Each structure stands twice: as C-alpha cells, then as structure tokens.
Amino acid sequence: MLSRRFVRSSSLVVGALSLAVTGCVTSMPPSMLHPLLNQSAPAFEAEALDKRSVTVPSYGASRVTVLDFWASWCDACRDTMPALERLWRARRSDGLMVVGLNVDDEAEQALEGAYRFGVTFPVVHDRGQQLLGAFGAHQIPTTFVLDAAGRVRFVGRDPETIKRAVNALMDR
Question: What's the number of domains the chain is made of?
C-alpha cells in the first residue's frame, strides 16, 4: 500500500516532468565559469557605430540584455553574430536587447564586419578594449546574458546555448 505522502510527491514530480517535456518550464543551461557570473555587470554608456546611445545595464528598458564580444577576423563569430541577429529579431519586441562589442583595432573594421555578418542591433567599437578588460572576456566570441537587474546570469560561446539562456530568462 502506498502512502498518501508518496502518491502526492510522485504526482508533483510527474507534473513537473510533463511541464518540462512540453516546454512550459525553461531552465538555464550551464554557463561557463566566470567571476562575473551572478554578479552585477560592469555599467557603461557608449555610442554605437550607428550613433545609437547604449546604456548597460538598461534598468526597465529591457528584460534581458545580451552583450557579445566579437571581432571581424573571428571565425566563430561567423556563426554567433547571425544567430544573435535572428534571436534579437525574434525577441526584441519581448524586451530583449542585444549589443555587439567589437574589439577590432579600427572602427571601420567593426562597421565592415557588422555589415558582412548582417547585424542590425547596436554595435559598439570597444576602442582600446576597455570593456573587454572590465568584463574579463579572454576569448572571442564571449557572450554575457544579463537579467533585468543587470546581473550576469550566463556566459558562453555556443549560439544555441545562448539562445536557451535568453529564452529561460525571457520566459520566466
């Protein structure tokens, strides 16, 4: 004979599993280990290449912010940048902000790279790589996903995992 307690807790587990299987519960994927994980992101204001003003964190202006460090010469960025563009187009009306932080030597290289990758989200040229240093990004590309409070909730490089992290935060 099964106890009521066992039956009740089993029902909860089965219910939670069915929600997860149907996609109603989205969990955060594993993040790269990084000192900023679960910490407040360094704040900055910058002008994007297209003259848009970028403020991070953007309290109240976005539910989730994606910051991607990239360069025009980066082979892996050929996958990451278009994937971020697709994600931004799909979720920007839901409150997603995406900012590309370019670490090329010259702003012209950044502009050419953004054009070649087909991105329309704001791109900031990180002149002197000050933001790269402030965020402690040691590889290109490196992507940071921030929640609405400006805390770093995910750090990674794989476009599909970045998308899962964004969706987990957006769908809460």
Answer: 1
